[in-house]
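From: lab user (bench 3)
To: helpdesk
Subject: output format question, protein + zinc ion

Hello, I'm new to running complex predictions and I'm not sure whether the block I got back is the full result or only part of it. Here's what I submitted:
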Amino acid sequence: MMNFLKENKFLVFSPFRIILFCGLCGVLVFVGVMGQSLWWFYFGEGNTYVYRKGNLAVHFVDVGHGDCTVVQLPDGKVAVIDGGHEYYYPRVKRYIRERIKPKNNRIDYVINTHPHDDHLAGLLLLMEDFRVGKFFDHENITEGMVIGNNSYRIQFHAAKIREVDNIDDQYVNEYSPIITIEYASQVFIITGDAGHETERVFIESAAAQEIFDANRVDELTVYLQVGHHGSRSSTGIPFLNFVNPDVAIISLGFLYNHPHAEVIRNIKDRDAQILMTRDAGNIVFRCDGDRIKVFFSFDNPADLVYVWIVIFFALLFLCFNNYIVKFYRLWSRKSVDTIYCIV
Ligand SMILES: [Zn+2]
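Helpdesk reply: Thanks, we reran it on our side. This is the complete output you should expect:
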């Protein structure tokens, strides 16, 4: 080996290049760490999100094309409505473990709106990793069913309007009940992929008319999770007129050309603010009954690992490219046996 290096002096790395490489790696780490901190500082407070006892917090977790809503209830219980596609489950698990920190690893209510992969697959994995209190899906959700105490109320509407054995895609979307979460004057509406038919039944139900009573509607702040990721098959004009949202949250990725333009236009016509998980990352609303605070966070440092690896090899090439080229030339000239000698 030593003889070989003596014969091929150019293969001895110069201290200058090694120092340059270490220096650039240091700069890379510094820029990475600072960049991420500044990103969080300017674009969100998600990493500083703290649950306050007695508050209601509703988390719309960014699971690409799919839904995953985690609710921290005022009595300390935790509900998860849908779990996104299984591909995003590691993100959901990390989010719940690090941000929600459920007591005794227990999720009190696990709710599936309908059995499509972008809603159910992650939930099935979640139920293997966490202790589950009660599980609800289209099989056991009944019309008007209520979970809650005297400070909050989760209510299921327009349930069981479908023939469960019809597996046509739009029909399965209609399995989704419309779920309202009421806390003081705040109302969150979770719609899964419910379509116009479910919306019509909801509007006509007495329970929904009681919540959105015309005399009361001005006092309410309404947060609507827009149905079916912003597809035109949901969020009809009569439904929008009925619930009159202040904020519309769309949980989506880059599939199916969602959100559809007419849905966005109809929401904007009602002066509602639109927030999308695709742009804002995880979106959290924390209410103390009086005031509401919104947090955003991007949950993707792990995704950036691949970027750092590519940049690392780019730096390696930048600093030592002449050696790499010379090695290659040597390799192509020498016999395989000689190359084995080098190593
Ligand atoms: Zn869906």
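A quick orientation on your result: The chain is about 40% helix and 20% strand. Let us know if anything else is unclear.
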